[in-house]
Amino acid sequence: MPLATHAGLPAFDLTGRLALITGSGRGIGYAIARGYALAGARVVLNGRDATRVAASAEALRGELLSHDPRRSPLEVQFSVFDVTDTAAAEEACQTLMAAHGCPDVLVNNAGIQIRGSLTEMPTEDWKRVIDVHLTGAFTVGRALARRMLPRGSGKIINICSVQSHLVRPTTAPYAAAKSGLVGLTRAMCAEWAPSGLQVNGLAPGYLDTELNASLVADPEFSGWITSRTPARRWGRVEDVVGPAIWLASSASDFVNGQVIYVDGGMTAVI
Ligand code: NAP
């Protein structure tokens, strides 16, 4: 590889890469997909709500073409499936790979939150949260890794959380799932790094997205977040995009099995 590729910005260029981002019709997933597309990648959006995902893909195509008329609208695709429906997710991944080839980058981002005390938590709610974050990442990761491994390359980014490391009352299934995702990230690294894959976790702090709408609207909680975060603000989805591009690019080729916290310093300071 020429020195210039490692010495400068081209190492962050995603031109020619194909990326599947789960749960990307809105929020962090959409921001990452948009960042990848603007950095040169072809992207595949995903979610369960077909109307929303199609509309988000259309909006991204419009932005991409206005940014660079030489880009093709075909560089933004979408695939509607529920990551907890193993058969449907596997079939969708096969269809995607038959049509577009094996993705170079997978971002396991789909997520939900169900809050409640441990003693009152219905088992179904517990299982639902674990299923989306943890089993979903396993299912989609496995489907793509089966094609990435013989090819000898691939980047998998599991979206973790500050709750992979710190816990609050009422978020037990979410914290358990996000902590488990750190273990899954390391396990994927252990098994797949020898075949040329990089698997890392990206752990945002508290961001102002739909998932946190009720918390953002609560002045007491919002005040606590800004005082508890050394950067003294809620995070924004844009804060996650640069690190996500780095982890998808050749600039991070020797980074493996790590969790990168993007949290304004929250996990570093008591
Ligand atoms: P969001 O705005 O609620 O978006 C969640 C996305 O996941 C939606 O696009 C949703 O689309 C999709 N989704 C949910 N269940 C799915 C399923 N079973 N199959 C496929 N897609 C599914 O949430 P966000 O704040 O952007 O969060 C994205 C990720 O970042 C999550 O993993 C979350 O835990 C993590 N995170 C968020 C924060 C934060 O502060 N917001 C902090 C740390 C980590 P459909 O409803 O159309 O399926």
Automatic annotation (TrEMBL):
InterPro entries recorded: NAD(P)-bd_dom_sf, Sc_DH/Rdtase_CS, SDR_fam
Pfam families (UniProt xref): adh_short_C2 (PF13561)
Top-level taxon of origin: Bacteria
Alphabetized SUPFAM superfamilies for the sequence: NAD(P)-binding Rossmann-fold domains
Keyword field: Oxidoreductase
Gene Ontology BP terms: fatty acid elongation
Gene3D superfamilies recorded: NAD(P)-binding Rossmann-like Domain
Gene Ontology MF terms: oxidoreductase activity, acting on the CH-OH group of donors, NAD or NADP as acceptor
PANTHER family per the UniProt record, alphabetical: BLL7886 PROTEIN, SHORT-CHAIN DEHYDROGENASES/REDUCTASES FAMILY MEMBER
Family named by the database record: Belongs to the short-chain dehydrogenases/reductases (SDR) family.
Protein name: Gluconate 5-dehydrogenase
